[in-house]
Specification:
The chain has one domain. The radius of gyration is 14 Å and the shape is globular. Strands 1, 2, 3, 4, 5 and 6 form a 6-stranded antiparallel beta sheet that branches. It is built from 4 helices and 6 strands; from the N terminus they run ββααβββαβα. It is of the alpha+beta class.
Length: about 130
């Protein structure tokens, strides 16, 4: 496993990429995709989140009145359970251990959930 530069987690890029190549996930809501994907791509570069995830294939997308929440699963381990977020000025970036979903698809018990929270106002302003 490779240590992410945030020192919050380790990840297995190759194992994650292998699974994403087989998954047929996609954004179910094209409006969320058009608002969020450009922001996500910017954050990936800024935070060096090249962890093997295909960001065009979210595990889950949630829309509330105020924000979009986009979730991705990947093979990895938290280094500490006390700090599970990556500070970012534009969006919320949280990393959680995933215990409920994905074990069958990833054939791995070491799964993490990358949750990206994007304020709708910010997303609308980037159009």
């Amino acid at each position: 496993m490779i240590k992410h530069n945030s020192d919050i987690f380790q990840f297995d890029k190759q194992a994650t990429e292998t699974v994403f190549n087989t998954l047929s996930l996609e954004f179910s809501n094209k409006i969320i995709q058009s608002y969020c994907l450009p922001i996500i791509k910017d954050v990936i570069q800024r935070q060096d989140l090249y962890i093997g995830v295909d960001y065009e294939k979210p595990w889950e997308e949630i829309e509330t009145n105020d924000y979009y929440q986009i979730e991705y699963l990947f093979v990895g381990k938290l280094k500490s359970k006390s700090k599970t977020y990556i500070p970012d000025d534009q969006i919320g970036i949280n990393i959680f251990e995933e215990n409920m979903f994905g074990k069958l698809e990833f054939d791995n018990a070491d799964l993490l959930n990358l949750t990206l929270v994007i304020n709708k106002k910010d997303a609308t302003n980037t159009k």
